Known about the structure:
Oligomer: single chain
Radius of gyration: 19 Å
Order of helices and strands: HEHHHEEHHHHHEEHH
Distance between the termini: 28 Å
Amino acid sequence: MGKGLNIxxxxxxxxxxxxxxxxxxxxxxxxxxxxxxxxxxxxxLQGYLDGQGNPIYPNSNRVYAEIMGSKPLRKQGLLQKxxxxxxxxxxxxxxxxxxxxxxxxxxFTQKLTLGREQVDQIRHLFESxxxxxxxxxxxxxxxxxxxxxxxxxxxxxxxxxxxSRFAEVQTIVEQGLSTLKSSxxxxxxxxxxxxxxxxxxxxxxxxxxxxxxxxxxxIVIKKRNDERKL
Length: 230
């Protein structure tokens, strides 16, 4: 079980199953237990085995390393902290979990699709003040508050929120491009608004432009790391 999946993907699959069982928000402990039950070889505590050689206790440190380590799922925009040791999957995380489960079910079964929430997020990016000013040719009029609105943060956000939102914006746009490419579609439709590959690439360019334009302001946020606990 889980052949071909890396540790992060296995954890996302476990988190998605927690959601499917009716818990949109889950604790770190919920994730520890779910990951151990789903993938005991990956998330079980070695040295404590049953008669069949399966780990009988979860290894919480293995899960926490993916939440708080050098490349945590939150920094990749796949998992969001919503309270004291409480989390939820982002839409990008759900999409990654769906892809991992499809890959794990056998060859040639993976189909890239965009969920409604992902398309809504793309719409949010297009309707942001920063994107509106870009379309009007007023790039120099874009303020840092406009940029924050585009990214979904505030000037008082911390480093982890910043990295998480950056990763989620990039992931959503990249998945949109991948979906268009894999389905040979011309556009993604949201209501009466079609979003083409050129539109999505423009969002990527805008993200890069805003990073460079507000580099000094972003440095302040990147240094603001007041989160100590899970």
